[in-house]
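Dear support,

We are seeing what looks like truncated structure output for some complexes. This example has two components. We would appreciate it if you could run it in full and send us the complete token output so we can diff it against ours.
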Amino acid sequence: GESVGLHLPTLSVQEGDNSIINCAYSNSASDYFIWYKQESGKGPQFIIDIRSNMDKRQGQRVTVLLNKTVKHLSLQIAATQPGDSAVYFCAENTVLSSNTGKLIFGQGTTLQVKP
Amino acid sequence: EADIYQTPRYLVIGTGKKITLECSQTMGHDKMYWYQQDPGMELHLIHYSYGVNSTEKGDLSSESTVSRIRTEHFPLTLESARPSHTSQYLCASRSAGNTEAFFGQGTRLTVV
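Here is the complete output from our reference environment:
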């Protein structure tokens, strides 16, 4: 079956440092991967995505890296701020047919930013 | 801000009761999803829909049912609630060809 998972349940970083959150996946049929941020009491919020034919994608203060050889992706947050404190999930879109797919989430990593 | 709404936000209900969790979106999205999430844990897909009159079961077996009679509406029903159904239920939607899914704020269900 398919599974998406993160390596560490909790990551604690100092404000201003860079954060790296990791995720491993098992389904090679996924066409893209997404990172979501979930703050307490809220639904997940889209951060950035990456197509399976890409290795790297950058956004504002965030970079996602995809290594298909070892089925691993990571989210890098530059200059981590207190507002970045949340639970981060990786997700993959599993292709079922040409126009259908389901979004599968992995376990979350809680990012704690120390002032 | 996403235009997807879930009601109620919180629900405490007795065992055996029938409940319907509402989810509505005003973005015209074809694809809609229901996830179950325990506190601090991952999201488990329980139902999804590609459009009107299309519903599929997700990876996590669930005793709930869904319907998609209108594009904007994707309600989830539990015919007979049990304490094991206690959890948070999150609804999401996205448009075809778009990777970004928008989530509602969730319904936190407690069955006593």
